[in-house]
Amino acid sequence: MSLKNDKFPASAAFDVINEALNSSEADRKDAIKQGNAVFAFTLKNSAGETESWHIDLKIKGAVGKGLGEKPNVTLTLSDDDFGKLVTGNANAQRLFMSGKLKIKGDIMKATKLDPILKKAQTKAKL
């Protein structure tokens, strides 16, 4: 089942992240060990619509639609900025400082997401 939503072009990255997590059992376990949290993402597209996805790196090591079960951290940003973040064309810290990325919950957990996104960057073609 694809996680992509055509109204949110960067959402294709969630499929890529899911593939990266499921490429090998060792990678999945490593990501769970590194992340140890549920990361929720709420993206806003150019039409002003919002949609949510989550990356469960606490138990399952999988990506899904919706906020997930008790997210430790929720990141809210535009679809465009998320695309740039996943492809490595934007820095999460700069997006946060400029107000383009809002973080709710455990901000330190948000820093654990970087290596997981970096793995997906090597496979993402957004």
Helix content percent band: 25-40%
Give the CATH architecture.
2-Layer Sandwich
Q: Return Rg in Å.
A: 13 Å
Following the backbone from N to C, one meets helices and strands in this order, namely HHEEEEHHEHH
**Major sheet: arrangement of strands:** 3-2-1-4-5
| Number of spatially distinct domains | 1
**Intertermini distance:** 19 Å
GO cellular component, one term: cytosol
Protein name: Fatty acid-binding protein
Organism: Diplogelasinospora grovesii
InterPro entries: SCP2_sterol-bd_dom (IPR003033), SCP2_sterol-bd_dom_sf (IPR036527)
Care to describe what's here?
It is built from 6 helices and 5 strands, in the order H-H-E-E-E-E-H-H-E-H-H. It is of the alpha+beta class. It has one domain (9-119): Nonspecific Lipid-transfer Protein, Chain A (2-Layer Sandwich). The radius of gyration is 13 Å and the shape is globular.
Descriptors:
126 residues, alpha+beta, 5 strands
Give a short overview.
The protein is an alpha+beta fold. The chain is 39% helix and 22% strand. It has a single domain (9-119), classed as SCP2 sterol-binding domain (Nonspecific Lipid-transfer Protein, Chain A), CATH 3.30.1050.10.
Fold topology:
Layout: H1 12-22, H2 25-35, E1 38-44, E2 50-56, E3 62-65, E4 73-78, H3 79-87, H4 92-97, E5 102-105, H5 107-110, H6 114-121
Parallel strand pairs: 1-4
Antiparallel strand pairs: 1-2, 2-3, 4-5
Helix pairs in contact: 1-6
